[in-house]
Structures are given as structure tokens and as C-alpha cells.
Design brief:
With about 500 residues, this protein is an alpha/beta fold. Helices cover about 40% and strands about 10% of the residues. It is built from 15 helices and eleven strands. The chain has an eleven-stranded mixed beta sheet with strand order 1-3-2-4-6-5-10-11-9-7-8, sandwiched between helices. β7, α8 and β8 form a beta-alpha-beta unit.
């Protein structure tokens, strides 16, 4: 069948809009029709904003009629993970405790996209407070993978990944604390970018783990990821961790290829637990890079085996601090029947938070408690330093590193919900980049025997997004994959 407008990339749509072939309104209508057609099955959205989207598209069309130039994101329908604040539009974090929260301010990432003409189609479902690897922890029900509705889309940005994969929107923002953009990108067959920590402002991102949280992009092409990053990156004085760096033109050099590029294959990423189809597909893609002229060798991250343990001390510790603000007093849900303020807070947090959030709060509170801080949180931070040094040594020899994004393809709904450790292992290859603050991208590199997508992860040094895009684009172009999930059959 012929693809609808919403199935094209943002770059393709921007060219057609600029050339007068189509209008922003037509693009947005295509996206809204797709949402109506498939989202009752996928459940990618928690809040839909069709009136807002159509009104904005009409404004952009009228403005374009004056002959004034517009940004490449103008008129392109997008979605935001529901942890990014949108003024006057419900922002739940996938939690009952914020079920009816209407932020009085905008997140910087969305404000910048909006300022460039981005069109908001809605807010996407996610694991509660971005804590999860399968999108089964949402208080509002799970998201289903467009490739197989009985499987997970990955998490915690599963709604954003599924929405892009199914053509409900052209691109989306997610957040990545330990792989929450890249892992669902891998499982849904889209491109997922985690930028350098601090490159994109965290202002208006409702915090999970402040030293790890990163706003990232989900798109259907590497070029679109570069365009989106250029639109949202840059210094923001409202975020103390925002980097004071000039934003380069990420499209410059995109077509440069990989001839002479030094590619390191992470030795630790092909061991036990990696499905054969994942291993073989990633290895075959590395061979393609070599055929394109890249110099390929073996890289090592000697302390990678400790990253999972370090992450699940650092992230819950920061979460226990960040989530202390949800007390039923200032905003959000308040439980009924409390006998005093302490009882009210106890009931509010007990009823408002789900099991995974409670688990991580307890882990973090314990790790930070008197007598245990040095043994747990302090030691985890030392491991983090070792991981940073591992990357520095690896990048002295290689320009980019390659690994699988996830050790497996999408697993079945309910398969791992009762085994937290099995669930946590899904992020084993993505977590190191978060601990080190380096940029990483997941690109589709094939399908397994069940026709489920496989993702390959490329990692670059701090602020190395340009070389990351160049390598990812070269691989994407060489593979030439055309991915259309089965949920779209007959749509």
C-alpha cells in the first residue's frame, strides 16, 4: 500500500511543506487519523491534543503563506513522553499521584520545539516516573509493541517509541536515564538518541535521577534525530547542569561516510544472555561498516560488569530524594482518611505510587541511610568514575564504539514483571553511557526469526554527536531497511 503522510520522515515532510506540495494541516490530519486508527490497540498516548495540533498547523500554514521561512521542525507532528511538563496540558509521569496535574510552565525541550513550529499531537504513556524497561509499570496500563501486540515496546519511553514506529507521530521526545530511549527504540525498530549529558536542558523534566536523566529523541531516521537535536540543544540558565556549548550544525558532515573511521566493537557486549539473532545481526552490521571503509577493532570496557549494580544504587538513591516532594500537601494526589499529616502522607504515597517506584524508593533510602552511605552509594560513585575512565581509554583508540542496544528483542507482556533482576538486565548495554554521560544512538539493524526489530548501539565521546550521526547515517543508508510494523496492515 502507499504510505500515508505520517509514514514519511520529518525531512521528507519538511521538503514537501517548503515546496508547497502539502500543508502542515494535511500532515497533522494524517497523524491524527493514524492515532484514531491504531492507538486503542497500542495505547501509546495518555493525553491526545488534536485541537491544539490542528490550530497550530493552521497558524503555520497561514504564516507560510506570507513567504516567511520556517524551521525544519515546523508543521511536523510530534509527541512528548509524559514526564515533560506542558503548560496547561496534563502531565502524569504515568503515575496516579500526578493523575490530574496541570503544569504552570513548559519544559525547555518542548518550548524550543514549539518555538520552532513543532506540533504537539499528545503526551505518551511511560513507566511510572520513567522507572522501567517494558512500559508495564504505568498506572494507566501497558503500551503494546506495534510489531506484536502481545509484546512490550521497551521502556520507559515505550509510548514515544511505539507512536513513532506506528506512524502515529513522525517523531517524539523521550527521556533516557539508563537506556529508556535507546532500548525501546531497539525493540520498536526506530532510531533512539541519548545526547551528551547536559547538552539538552532538563528544565521541566520531572526528575527521576538528576545526574543521569537525559532528554532524547525517537525518530524514523538518523537525519531526523540530527534535526531534532539541533532544535532542542543548547545552554539553559534555568538548568544548572546545562552545558555552555555552541550548538553545531548536526547535518554538516552527515553524508561524510565512515571511510577511515575507527570503530571499536565492545568485547563485553557479546557474552551470555545475548540472543543469537541479536549477536549475528550486530556482527553483520559491523562487517558492513568495515566494507564501507571503517577500521574495525576490539574495544574493552573492563568495569562494565559492575555498571548494573552501580546504576541500581545511584539511580534509586537520587529517586528517593527527588520523589520525597510528593507528599499530598503541595500538589498532586492526596489520600482520604488520614488521622494526621503523617498518616495522610503515608496513605498518599502508599496509594499514589506503584510497586516499582516503591521498590526503588526503598532501595535508594537504604543506600543513603546512616551507616550504609559509604558502603553502597559511595562505592557506586567510585565505580562510575572507573566507567568514565574506561570510556576515555577506549576513545583514545576508537572514534565510536559498537554493541547491541538490548540483549534481546521484544519479550512478551508479563514475561518478566515478577523478576525485577531479569527486567533490569535489559538495560545492561545502555546503562554505561548514562553513567559516563557520553552520547549514544540506537539504529535498527535487522529482524530476528520472529520478525522483531534488532537495534545496534553506537557510542561516541562527550559532545561527539556529529561523528555519532555520521556513522549511524552511513550504516542506516547501507542497510536500507524499510520497517513497517504488522499493526499497520490494512491501515
Amino acid at each position: 500500500m502507499t504510505d500515508a503522510l505520517c509514514d514519511l520522515t520529518g525531512g521528507e515532510l519538511a521538503t514537501k511543506i517548503a515546496g508547497g506540495e502539502i500543508s502542515a494541516t494535511e500532515v497533522v490530519e494524517s497523524s491524527l487519523e493514524r492515532i484514531e486508527a491504531v492507538d486503542d490497540e497500542i495505547h501509546a498516548f495518555l493525553t491526545r491534543t488534536p485541537e491544539v495540533a490542528l490550530e497550530r498547523a493552521a497558524e503555520l500554514d497561514a504564516h507560510r503563506g506570507t513567504g516567511a521561512p520556517q524551521h525544519a521542525v515546523a508543521g511536523i507532528p510530534l509527541a512528548l513522553k509524559d514526564v515533560l511538563a506542558t503548560m496547561g496540558i496534563r502531565t502524569t509521569c504515568g503515575s496516579l499521584i500526578l493523575e490530574n496535574y496541570l503544569p504552570p510552565y513548559e519544559s525547555t525541550a518542548w518550548a524550543r520545539l514549539s518555538g520552532h513550529g513543532g506540533v504537539l499531537a499528545g503526551k505518551t504513556n511511560c513507566d511510572e516516573f520513567a522507572m522501567g524497561s517494558s512500559n508495564e509499570n504505568s498506572a494507566y496500563g501497558p503500551v503494546r509493541n506495534p510489531w506484536d501486540l502481545e509484546r512490550v515496546p521497551g521502556g520507559s519511553s515505550g509510548g514515544s517509541a511505539a507512536a513513532v514506529a506506528a506512524g502515529e507521530v513522525v517523531w517524539a521526545l523521550g527521556t533516557d536515564t539508563g537506556g529508556s530511549v535507546r532500548q525501546p527504540a531497539s525493540l520498536c525498530g526506530v532510531v533512539g538518541l541519548k545526547p551528551t549529558y547536559g547538552l539538552v536542558s532538563r528544565y521541566g523534566l520531572i526528575a527521576f535521577a538528576s545526574s543521569l536523566d537525559t532528554v532524547g529523541t525517537l525518530t524514523r531516521s538518523v537525519r531526523d534525530a540530527a534535526v531534532m537535536l539541533g532544535a532542542i540543544a543548547g545552554k539553559d540558565h534555568r538548568d544548572a547542569t546545562s552545558l555552555d556549548e555552541d550548538v553545531p550544525d548536526y547535518l554538516a558532515g552527515l553524508e561524510g561516510g565512515v571511510d577511515g573511521l575507527r570503530v571499536g566493537v565492545v568485547a563485553e557486549a557479546f557474552g551470555e544472555g545475548v540472543e543469537p539473532a541479536v549477536r549475528d545481526s550486530v556482527r553483520a552490521s559491523v562487517d558492513r561498516l568495515a566494507d564501507l571503509g571503517a577500521s574495525v577493532g576490539e574495544a574493552t570496557l573492563p568495569h562494565a560488569e559492575y555498571t548494573l549494580s552501580a546504576y541500581y544504587l545511584i539511580a534509586p538513591s537520587e529517586a528517593s530524594s527527588n520523589l520525597a516532594r510528593y507528599d499530598g500537601v503541595r500538589y498532586g494526589f492526596r489520600a482520604e482518611g488520614g488521622t494526621d499529616s503523617i498518616d495522610m502522607m503515608f496513605r498518599t504515597r502508599g496509594e499514589g505510587f506503584g510497586p516499582e517506584v516503591k521498590r526503588r524508593i526503598m532501595l535508594g533510602t537504604y543506600a543513603l541511610s546512616a551507616g550504609y552511605y559509604d558502603a553502597y552509594y559511595g562505592q557506586a560513585q567510585k565505580v562510575r568514575t572507573l566507567i568514565i575512565r574506561d570510556y576515555e581509554k577506549a576513545f583514545a583508540d576508537f572514534d565510536v564504539l559498537v554493541s547491541p542496544t538490548s540483549p534481546t528483542t521484544a519479550f512478551r507482556l508479563g514475561e518478566k514483571v515478577d523478576d525485577p533482576m531479569a527486567m533490569y538486565l535489559n538495560d545492561i548495554f545502555t546503562i554505561p553511557a548514562n553513567l559516563a554521560g557520553v552520547p549514544a544512538i540506537s539504529v535498527p539493524c535487522g529482524l530476528d526469526d520472529a520478525s522483531l526489530p534488532i537495534g545496534l548501539q553506537l557510542t561516541a565521546p562527550v559532545l561527539g554527536e556529529q561523528v555519532l550521526f555520521r556513522a549511524a547515517h552511513a550504516l542506516e543508508r547501507d542497510l536500507g531497511l524499510v520497517l513497517r510494523p504488522p499493526v499497520l496492515a490494512g491501515v
